[in-house]
Specification:
single chain, 190 residues, alpha/beta, TIM Barrel, 6-stranded parallel β-sheet, 6 strands, 47% helix, globular
Amino acid sequence: MGDQYRLSARRSLAQTRLPPVRLAVNVSAAQFSRPDFVDVVAQALVSSGLDPELLELELTESVIVRDLDESARRLERLRALGLKLAIDDFGTGYSSLSYLRRLPIHTLKMDRSFIQELERDPNTLSLVRAIVTLAHGLGLAVVAEGVERQEQFEALRAAGCDRFQGFYCGAPASAESIENLLARPVVVIR
């Protein structure tokens, strides 16, 4: 997602009369490594008028661990702006669990490879439960990525995942489709 598209998406969210919804944006290694990245984000927030609480930046493990100390400093500055921060594709990279306690993040997004293995390998559910327990112990929310079937959803919900992403929850949609969806009344059945 390019800088212009992100800025446009932020403006759309800021201008809409719909209920507030968080926009998650993937940050590339090239973007995060720019010396002025935090300043660019801060300026985009000012120019768009978007509430920073409604923007979640997603970075992969591999981007963060390249220079853990510098990443922690940048993430701290981003968090100070009021942004939400997530580690995307958790479990596919370095997964040194010790770094998690050093980072000012809010969310772990568990990689879809865990979800795809749930039905093939019974040990995967044990790993998922361990990741959820660890994340919750650190005060982090857990998102399960790549949920495609009800059986996966049920197992992940029982394991304690907080949020879900994938075709079972809904296919990717245009901004207009999402605005129309959010404009409709919602009934939640539990």
